[in-house]
Amino acid sequence: MASTEGASIPNNNRCKFILPKKQRQCKQSVKAGLDYCGQHLPTEGCEDQQAGDRRVQCPYGKHTVPAYLLASHLKICNDKKIADQWSSEPYHVPSINAGPEPALILPDAPPELADFKGRVDTPACRRLAYAVNLGPDALKNLISRLNSVSKRIKELSPNKYSILREEDVEKLAARASTGSSHMPFNVKHGAQHASILGNMDKFGLFSHPKDTMFIEFGAGKGYLTNALAKLIPEADKLIMMDNQKFKLLADRRLRNKKMQRLRCDIANFEPCGVDGFEQVPFWVAHGKHLCGAATDLTLRCCYRYLERRRERGGGGGGTTTGDAGSSADTVQVVDHKSTFLGLGVATCCHHRCSWQHYIAQDVILELGFSPEEFEIFSYFTSWALCGHFGTSNSSTRKSNKNGKDANDSGRDNGHATCVGVSEAKEEEESIEGGVEERINGGGWRLHHSFPREERQLIGKQCKRLIDYGRVEWLRRNGFDAIEVLYCDPESSGENRLVLARPK
């Protein structure tokens, strides 16, 4: 019987939205006179012909509704019900790990951009507008200062490769390469997981696996935790936490473990509220490719817990009053005595960092940079991975012997390291040229001022600066901390792993 998929709706009656992941046209039908279905109807400058009202995005999801129906929609919205359920959990404490309210707000976009597609309020465009307004001379001076500081950082903390291929790690990587259904990620990600876990083991974070609760921050589909369970069978107290919904492909392989899947933003996460936390002697934090500020939120979460223990003479948690720049008010948490062994976090997506949440503000200021300049550096970090463009959509996908897209892992290589980042990055880049042209009238262009190789170098220096600040901050606040390169840059441009343990 011939397939009729896509044939029931004529092309002229189909939604014109192109699905970014599937690279095909949406198959939903549209109302007469409209180009898009209700799901993909633009929220700006578009009128609903029947209701005579514009559509707005639901604050709890990606779907849109007519503005006049928003209040009634929220009463039945499934996403809101789920959000309310998770926010009532004891481990959810609003903004407990967030940075202080921003003392820095970049200047408003210049008047030339007032009518530019309504997109000038994105962080990338605001940073770009600020950088372009500095002018070529001031920007070259900033790059010169960055070069000088980068040389100092290289002398103080030289790059150190630690790509572990020990016996157990070899077995784990080999298991990934067989295409076994027990290891659903591809060869590249299997080797990365093995090296991350091998480095954590070498650093002493797996000293008591049977008595340790392992909490994966930003777990995504949970493949790093799945690899941990395979590498260390004694580890059976596993927590996977993320603020998004994912296919629980790894969870089914952990049925024999004491595994929990939590839905929570890291900014709101209090580990003491996790079920069973009071019964474990030790706990470890880990994560692969935590986007931008998520790394800083994770470090602040671990620091807060350690500070509470120190204040109570080695006891458990207690009352906290916004440690480490937290924006939370006084929060009551139950007294626990679990010992924090340390953390292993692979950093990622530095263009999503922000001065508000950045943990090492004092380090950046001591190096002679202002908060505004930090925001520019955060923007420049996207240049580091421009060499990966064109590979993540072709060779990376073709190399997956299991027939899975690299995005199936929940994390990807290069500029598309995290879910949805590639689409967001492409959308930002599609208007950046227009932003520069509006400001300068087609004159000096920031992107044209540096050849591609130099842009890559500047981006790498900015990423190195941000991670160096994090490691230095950890050392100043009671941790033994190191930074290693856990895989080759050809495997992933995001190949830095921060390891820390209390002194």
Please characterize this protein's 3D structure.
- The chain has helices at 70-76, 78-87, 123-156, 167-177, 187-202, 223-231, 293-311, 361-366, 371-380, 395-398, 421-440, 452-476, and strands at 18-19, 24-25, 47-48, 53-57, 64-66, 212-217, 237-242, 258-263, 282-291, 339-348, 479-485, 496-502.
- The protein has 503 residues and is an alpha/beta fold.
- Among the domains are: 11-87, no CATH class; 161-374 and 384-418 and 479-502, Rossmann fold (3-Layer(aba) Sandwich), CATH 3.40.50.150.
- The strands form 3 sheets. The chain has a 7-stranded mixed β-sheet, sandwiched between helices. It has a 3-stranded antiparallel β-sheet with strand order 3-4-5, with no helix packed on it.
- Mean pLDDT is 77; it is low at 1-9, 176-181, 315-323, 327-335 and 388-417.
Concise account of the structure shown:
The chain is an alpha/beta fold and 503 residues long. It has twelve helices and twelve strands.
- Helix share, percent: 25-40%
CATH architecture of the domain at 161-374 and 384-418 and 479-502: 3-Layer(aba) Sandwich
CATH class of the domain at 161-374 and 384-418 and 479-502: Alpha Beta
First-last Cα distance: 69 Å
What gyration radius follows from the Cα positions, in whole Å? 24 Å
User: Outline, from the CA principal axes?
Assistant: globular
